[in-house]
């Protein structure tokens, strides 16, 4: 077992050939910016199958030279969990090619680009189940995540979105800050060209974004993965995602943590 991939198990029912076939279809859709029909093989499938496909998708990217840089949480709001019929969040993987380092977010190669404000945590040391948030996370920052489902019409089931690496596409992180005493109810605003288009609170992230750390450690451990020192954890969206267009400037502000912005280009 390695940190980025392990053999099918944990209740998966699809064989490895089918897992790899589904992963290849999703990977090709992302590479070619061509929307994919839903994967009927995943209809009613256990989440173990979906995560096995996700591992295979990311394994293809790692084989092309990408490196893991962190994890991201999804379905962290009560409303989204209810909509998808689950009682816990889901998670995906981040790689170095997904990081926006120069403040410019290109939409080239995207299918259904949408953006949402998040809270990011910096992992100070390798994490293990049972580790306390304050012993592992050494900094926090406002963040933006670009999501981009590879499915036609942005329509998918729970196994579909897990297999598609939770629609992960790109992420931008603002200046790192010391972890404040509380993160429970900080105001969050998403601006496009200076106009607020979404407002919310960090309370939308599992009631307290720090709970996303606990969930990430637990869920990743079930998949044979550990959060590593230097990695990023995107705790989850604080508002609904907003469709994004080239030629705009998008900014996320989290009260007490500062702001992060990107110039969106075609």
From TrEMBL:
What InterPro entries does the record point to?
Answer: Fumarylacetoacetase-like_C, Fumarylacetoacetase_C_sf, Hydratase-Decarb/MhpD_sf
Q: What is its EC number?
A: 4.1.1.77
Domain Fumarylacetoacetase-like C-terminal as annotated: residue spans: 104-264
Q: Which domain of life is it from?
A: Bacteria
The GO cellular component terms are: cytoplasm
A Pfam family recorded for this sequence: FAA_hydrolase
Enzyme class, broadest EC rank:
lyase
Going by the UniProt record, its keywords in alphabetical order are: Lyase
Q: Name one GO molecular function term.
A: 4-oxalocrotonate decarboxylase activity
Q: What is this protein called?
A: 2-oxo-3-hexenedioate decarboxylase
